[in-house]
Amino acid sequence: KNVTLRDLLSRPDEASYEPIVELLRTSEQGGVVRLLLGLLDDPKSPLVVADVIGSRTDAKFVGYLAQAVGPNPSRAIAESLKRIRDIAWATIDHPVFAELDDAGQEGAVQILVRASLDRDRVLATLCHLAKKGNAGGRQAALHALKGFNKPGISQVIIDALEDPEPRVRAEAILQVRPRQILGAFSILIRMVDDPAEEVREALRTAMPE
User: From 150's CA, which of 4, 88, 118, 176 has a CA 20 to 30 Å away?
Assistant: First the structure.
């Protein structure tokens, strides 16, 4: 099926091209969604596939997309994500984020960092997720911030040290010293009484001495 669909999407002059693209762009039917996500496994799919995937903001599709990508996308999916030039929901406080569970937000973070988007836009969205996302989304966003080094990120890390979720605090701890945050050692010392095992393990890694 995907071979036939890929062939049709490679022919924009065909009469069926526009109706098919519109169907892929708007339909929430399970079969259509599966077809579209199936094309994600093929990095050589027509570029219109990446454009369609990036244009959809319906929570049902974005959730399935995030699930398909997961926290560790395959090489084929990673290559396909790189071809996405815009993501309509990649904005601060887009309502679709509230519809995603922990795993969904983790997948969304992978989509954001692997797509070919403006890096400042990605950074702003990640910083927002690190503060306002679900526990899994906050941790994933913080982890993704390792790939950025711009003013303002250090404060996001410091704020995350007070997060109610131990996994998030642990992720923040691992970035305090590498970012050379002022008073890093003192900041970490203040965390030693944290009762969470994840936090204690992170402290042992961050302060091997």
Answer: 88
